[in-house]
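User: I'm writing a tutorial on reading structure tokens. Could you give me a worked example: one chain, its sequence, then its tokens, then a sentence or two explaining what the tokens reveal?
Assistant: Sure. Here is the example chain.
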Amino acid sequence: MLTHLINPKLCVRTAVATLLLLSCACQAYGQDSLSVKPERRGFLKRLGHGMYEFVKDFSRVDTNYVEPQHYNYTVMLQNTNTYEVYRLTTESGYSITFAPQPSVKLGPYVGWRWIFLGYTVDLTHISSGDKKTEFDLSLYSSQIGIDLFYRKTGNDYRIRSISIGKDIDTSPLHNTKFDGLSASIKGFNLYYIFNHKKFSYPAAYSQSTVQKRSCGSPLVGIGYTRHTLDVDWNKLAAVAKDKLGDQIEMPPVDSMLMSKVKYSDYSISGGYAYNYVFAPRWLFDISLSLALAYKTTVGDVNRSTFSFRNFSMRNFNIDGVGRFGIVWNNNKVYAGASTILHSYNYNKQHFSTNNFFGSVNIYVGVNFGKR
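And here are its predicted structure tokens:
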């Protein structure tokens, strides 16, 4: 035992001396020197800090479920395949389905965090002279995602199927080229992810995070699209006559009601997405949303401002969006495939159209530049 070596009087004297030294220091430098005053920030600094925290919150995740990105930059090679189908139906039961040849594109991409820039070459239309414009941009954060798209079709449509009567064989028209159809669509979809700290959309579609454990989340969103469809029915009748002969007559153009359709689509959507981690570093995602859409045509709105006289329950239709993805990602190297499908339905008393378009992406990439 060493307790007999300690002198209690000496300990007391030492403590008193220490207190005296601290008291002198306070008198020399002021009592406030022992406490640190918080720095007073100006209004602009506080506003900037608040905005930074707000934006930062969009990427905060539960690291038990999601592994954040560890790199600033990426390079990627991507193959994009686009598809499109238009189905037109009249009140009398005539129907026809048009679809262009799928586009096959290939090109490099360079990314910095959320921003991706790239250029692809349409390998199927290099020498055809077909003028087709396509723009697709998808941005994904943990909480919010947005799809922006613009498509203007060319003149490479084909007749995939046609029905002009029960007893009429229209098979000679199948897969026939038809350049009398032009269409365009532009718009956006914006959606919110509820379980954004545990479920990661970027893990499936932008490869900026890695989903470590299976998890799902409900989704809600809003959207707007503008559609234009123009059909030359006289040219279609001429093609039918050439393939089927004089004994077959296409219905009069008047029965088709209109040759050009323009309508706007306003929608509210809801759905569910699930990330299934079926093996380490492997992920399969499925996401389905249904949208209640209100559609207005140029003929529906005769004024520049909205009027309840123009409102009709018949203008409501159901649209849909589906996303599917499979990816392998070890945070340094990644590869996978994804697809996004859109479905739009437009129904009037005398005329209806169903439009489906989507894209399939196959990619491989490398991240670099550690944060």
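What the tokens reveal: Residues 1-36, 253-257, 299-311 have pLDDT under 50 and may be disordered. The chain is about 15% helix and 50% strand.
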